Amino acid sequence: MQALVNAGGKGTRMGKCGIEKPMQMVGDRPTIQRVIDALSASKHIDRVYVSVSDHTLVTEEYLEGMGVRTIRTSGESFMDDLHTAFERMEGEYVLTCPSDLPLLSTRVIDEFIEYFDSRVMESAIAVVDEETVRGLGITPSYTREHRGNQWVLSGVCIMNRPRTLAGEYLDEYIFDTNWPELAVNVNTMRELDLARSFFRERRPRPLCPCISPRPCP
Question: What pLDDT digit, counting tens, does each position of 105-127 carry?
Fold first, then answer.
């Protein structure tokens, strides 16, 4: 399966900090590199692409120096960028991921892909329960109801590429978790500080020791 990292947005919620959001340092590496490293190490991912734009020229230069494949998009809307990138990619299914998940791990990626069953699923999205997100000190801007609970979208998805390009509606399956690795999206300076705090403590500390696509009791 191919993977697409979305790194072409304006990052306006970060404010005028002078550094492109994907290039914000978390620990000893930029956020974008942490995401790429997690994806590249997955046994299910055979190629990683990153969509970039005029808003992320420094990111584009950095990635090209790393030998990462980039796709130039407009950076004006998620769907426009997605379609532009999908036109350059191959395969029936693509895993998409935002560039601002610095706690993302290969284990999480593998668990999500192994959950996905293309025989019965057209798309899937990974979500985190609202309690986990708020427990980390993050106020979600949007929640979604599922199985009687409220969930926060992580931005990590698997999508049918040809049907997406054709503009068809995809039935969506929900992969519900309580994983902090999917909860910390770096959209604001406060969230950046939170992500950095995990690495100041040397490693991310999950709220629950189990790894399961269901919340722990």
Answer: 999 999 999 999 999 999 999 99
